[in-house]
Write a structure and sequence with these properties.
Two copies of one chain form a homodimer.
Chain A: H1 9-18, E1 23-27, E2 32-36, H2 37-53, E3 61-65, H3 70-81, E4 85-88, H4 95-105, E5 107-113, H5 117-123, E6 132-136, E7 150-152, H6 153-159, E8 175-181, E9 189-194, H7 195-206, E10 218-221, H8 228-231, H9 233-239, E11 243-246, H10 253-263, E12 267-270, H11 272-284, E13 294-297, H12 304-314, E14 318-323, E15 330-333, H13 338-343, H14 346-353, E16 358-359, E17 364-369, E18 372-373, E19 382-387, H15 401-404, E20 405-406, E21 409-418, E22 424-429, E23 434-436, E24 439-441, H16 443-451, E25 456-466, E26 470-479, H17 489-496, E27 508-511, H18 525-539
Parallel strand pairs in A: 1-11, 3-4, 3-5, 4-8, 5-6, 6-7, 10-11, 10-12, 12-13, 13-14, 26-27
Antiparallel strand pairs in A: 1-2, 8-9, 14-15, 15-16, 17-18, 17-19, 19-21, 20-21, 21-22, 23-24, 25-26
Helix pairs in contact in A: 1-2, 1-9, 2-3, 2-6, 7-9, 10-11
Organism (chains A, B): Virgibacillus salinus
Protein name (chains A, B): Fatty-acyl-CoA synthase
InterPro entries (chains A, B): AMP-bd_C, AMP-bd_C_sf, AMP-dep_synth/lig_dom, ANL_N_sf
Chain lengths: 540, 540
Amino acid sequence: MMQVPLTVGPMLEHAEKFFSKKQVISQTHDKLHRLTYADIGERTRRLMSVLDGLGIQKGDRVGTLAWNHHRHLEIYFAAPGMGAVLHTINIRLSPEHIIYIINHAEDKILFIDEDVLPLIEAVQDKLQTVEAFVVMTDKSELPESTLKPLYSYEELLHTGDPTHEFSKTIDENDPAGMCYTSATTGKPKGVVYSHRGIVLHSYALGLADSAAVSESDVSMAVVPQFHVNAWGTPFACTWFGSTQVMPGPRFTPKRLAEFIEKFNVTITAGVPTIWLGLLRELEQGNYDTSSLRAVLCGGSAAPKGLIQAFEQKYKIPFIHAYGATETTPLVTLSRLKSYQEKELGEEDKLDQRAKQGALIPGLDMKIMGNNGEVAWDGEQMGELLLRGPWIADEYYKDERSENAFVDGWFHTGDVVTVDEEGTLKIVDRTKDLIKSGGEWISSVDLENALMAHDAVFEASVIAIPDAEWQERPIACVVLHEGFADKVGKDDMLEFIRPQFAKFWLPDDVLFFDEIPKTSVGKFLKRQLREQVKEHYNMQK
Amino acid sequence: MMQVPLTVGPMLEHAEKFFSKKQVISQTHDKLHRLTYADIGERTRRLMSVLDGLGIQKGDRVGTLAWNHHRHLEIYFAAPGMGAVLHTINIRLSPEHIIYIINHAEDKILFIDEDVLPLIEAVQDKLQTVEAFVVMTDKSELPESTLKPLYSYEELLHTGDPTHEFSKTIDENDPAGMCYTSATTGKPKGVVYSHRGIVLHSYALGLADSAAVSESDVSMAVVPQFHVNAWGTPFACTWFGSTQVMPGPRFTPKRLAEFIEKFNVTITAGVPTIWLGLLRELEQGNYDTSSLRAVLCGGSAAPKGLIQAFEQKYKIPFIHAYGATETTPLVTLSRLKSYQEKELGEEDKLDQRAKQGALIPGLDMKIMGNNGEVAWDGEQMGELLLRGPWIADEYYKDERSENAFVDGWFHTGDVVTVDEEGTLKIVDRTKDLIKSGGEWISSVDLENALMAHDAVFEASVIAIPDAEWQERPIACVVLHEGFADKVGKDDMLEFIRPQFAKFWLPDDVLFFDEIPKTSVGKFLKRQLREQVKEHYNMQK
């Protein structure tokens, strides 16, 4: 067979040739843009020639600090397309982490959204490798800024060559992209994505039994483009010719609901927090969401009640998925098998679909308990180990690699069970698992049970040290508005009691106004533990 | 990213783990078998250990002369799974070609279906490399045979190790399979399939906009397993957990119709001749075919009338595809784009779907006319050139490689047009194209037009030498039963006249009882030309 490398550039070339009329609908600060893939292709070619002119060479890192919009999409293809590396930076991180990331990755140029400029202006003196800044704005004039040299994206494009070719000298194992995990402790860790990994991951997203990304889709990635390449959807949707809707900066649930109705969105992807927000919006407004064939949900476990609300109340198929920054990210996706569709009752179906699902073809997994691999019985817990062509094999220039990547397997730090069908269920993070009297208690199971209560908006369960049992669970609950005086600790415990062994029940239930979260919407349990400690200290 | 090779063995391992209960339903000479993927996995492991015991080493060729059934499927995974090469041999070829192929590939062992034994017994003295023969039979005793040493498949399996591991030392570019093209002239040409090519091709078959192979499918490959790996469906269907129905030896259209009804077949694949036969069966019988979501048709161009009959009369979606032995084989697949679904009228939709379709993501193509690349205007004809990771880069140890594989492109020998949408239409074989007075005439277009006539069962158009015009077209027609005395040459010409320029119209229409075909059901135009020559000589 021909030795043709799997690279990112030809994915956009395919869209230029076969889907030239299809559109990218992009919301920026000032307006809504509509571009065809022919436009995107031409602009990407201009951008490659511009990067070339600015001295960007093969392997150089091109940083972005931007929301989801068409210019960001163009950089997605231009940087790897010319052999450079797309480095998406999470704009929600602390200035300290942003400085660390840019210096550690040695970004040579930064593409920055207008509203992110102040953030970079404030830290510019600490950036050691950046030689140029490009602001992505609709306005014809450059904004006032202390950044130098500062270029206008559109002006640069104006000078670019619309026929510039994608590089033909890229090896499929060359780096195409990079993203730092928003770690809850310590410095962020960098993951490098190869061309090969991105192409194979895109095939995986197109599989009928996976996300089934299709030309007929109108795809709206709500997950930020600065977070694991928006789960790879911009690459797959471009390659397969989907219409893409990009909700732009600082979107609200209202805008999401409006866009779904207006553009007949068929598939959308995001974290549970986003869908909780959308659900509240749908309950208030009167939106037509009938075009949606799939809401993909990942990043952290979705409560069963959320799935139920989408599916039963709004007839929107809700698909649970699992992945991580280190896994490009798609690892599992929850779909019923054909015989489960026929044989299971509604409640069992929901239970099954609330799990994270089966492994995507192309990957391999092992579940390691205290004494080696555990049985696939849906009961035994173990840490999930992964292997495959879109799984990272190291953190970029980071000593912490040796703990996470051992003997050819990525140790995810996620504790799971797997049932006889091969369906994976996230039980906990290894570090969040509660070890009580030699037994393991899953904080995630307790959280899901609590969140099924009508009064509960969010619930997070943490471990506190215990003299007798080593650790004991404490539940932290945020109530829906209007329930503050109506339910208490005992209601919560009574509600979940039938589902658990006695020793699993939390020792206490505390009520908070909100639960601290990471920049990507995951519970920040470290901080929550501090709050709980403080709460008990104040009581003393 | 991890350096995990794309190899065939893990595809079956995936089915063992995630689809262990799903079934392979297999018709052999004597009976119908039902095996699960757990069974297939165990038997394949036994077979690998047996091959190992028989001295088969990495890279050795394992020949098969067999129909579509579960034992053949097991060899599909066992041979490449242990690092050997699956060499499927077309049992319909002449003894002379079969001898050539086995010696040229240097097959070390042959797996033979019971009814094919006499064919091999007759040529055994000419086989230079074969060290062992295995007969695949349901019977407990070996049949009488002059082949030595001759083993029973099931007895060998009985002695095998059910826990034998798939080889871990395979490079993804190592050969996994091989198949010889049933050339219409000269010796057959061998194509070697790499592990990487087969895995990527399987992803392609699973894409939502391609064949969308799914766990929920019941797939019946009618295309023989000795012809381009049954178009790769056994690999993809196993990987993605589809139920597989294997129609076994010497099936009839009746058996196909019965299996579709009995096993709720959702997808099936084969050449136009098969579907013409099935159509006649459906017209006679009273079958429930409502489970079918797709009939894939390739190998040669399907007449529009055939597509129409399946879709309009039987509500069976008919999907036109294009490929070749050299292309693993999937290259294009015909689906309407979402906006074509909305915008085109029924007739235009049918015209579009009767084309071969758009290129599968991952491949690249060029259309070369007399003066370089031709425009994508649906008018200009040129030879189709292909490039991609599942396109062959040579014929196995064959000097003819240099004519077909030039500067990194496979020259298909197929003449095509491509429209603005990127939809490819096969116009002819370069060698069947009729060159009349400096213009090109497509024999395929004329054939399709003739086949739309109610009285016509099959039509083939060939070129005969012409003193004035260089070449002129002659139509050869097979009529449906009962039409012999009712239609003649003028009816045919009047019927197609409105669709073509005057010089395209055939100079003559000859009526035959049948049209000679290759062993894979394609018109054998070389032989037809001889028959036509003979016809005119007899008239003199």
